Amino acid sequence: MTAGLERRILLLVEDNPADAELVSEMLDTGHQPIEYDILRAQRLADAEELLNNKEIDVVLLDLRLPDAAGLQCVKTLLDISPELPIVVLTGMDDEDLALACIDAGAQDYLNKEEMKPLLLRRAIGYAITRLREAQLRDLRALLGGYRSLSSDGTATAITAITAGLGSVRDRNPDTFTKMAQQYLQLLTAYLEQLGYRKEKPRDFMAGLVTYLGDLGAGPRDLIDLHITALEYVVRVEGMERARAFVIEGRLLALEMMGLLVDYYRVGSRRRFIAGEGR
What we know:
By secondary structure, the chain is an alpha/beta fold.
């Protein structure tokens, strides 16, 4: 691969050898900012196997395959990978079907008889970009929902003034930064146990909650930590990983809320029984 170029994995689902060769030639025109590693499947079943075992960036999908046709091709692939950018390849008389495929979740379509290198590359690029923009909007909406619950909310500001306290982030920004880093580590460990069925990092969770409780933190401080960790992931990680952190991370936030409530309910008594504060 040429230094500085972006490489993408493209799955070409096409049973016609001549059409497959044409696509490969069009994408191998040289002097382009993006290079494609092309994986080819001649049947829908072959495409399913590749999707289950490979990281695919985009799919070019013929709608007339030996083992499937039409909308079913799109629906089957999206059942395996719902966030998959798909560009449908059609014939002259398939425009209505192509539009139905877009309604079903495909990003774009190209008429094979009108396909040229520039149009092909542009359709692939737009398909990926459209999907990423939609994902980014979803992420921003989810993060916006979290922010409405954070210490930036008006209700929290009023409560803080009344109680004579501000959020942990405002009272002790250095401590908050360190805790946010710890929370990100916790979130990563928590998601790993969800994906690989490991034991939950319970000691890590309990330790961080105790630290929060000892600082006089409340639920909105916990949301502050959660948002800070998620915003870092969105900036640094890939889109799919960021979505997993945002969506699956809700489970951790809920569990941590429960532990924080439990801290204030019985935490002081537990410390006294353990011999602290005597």
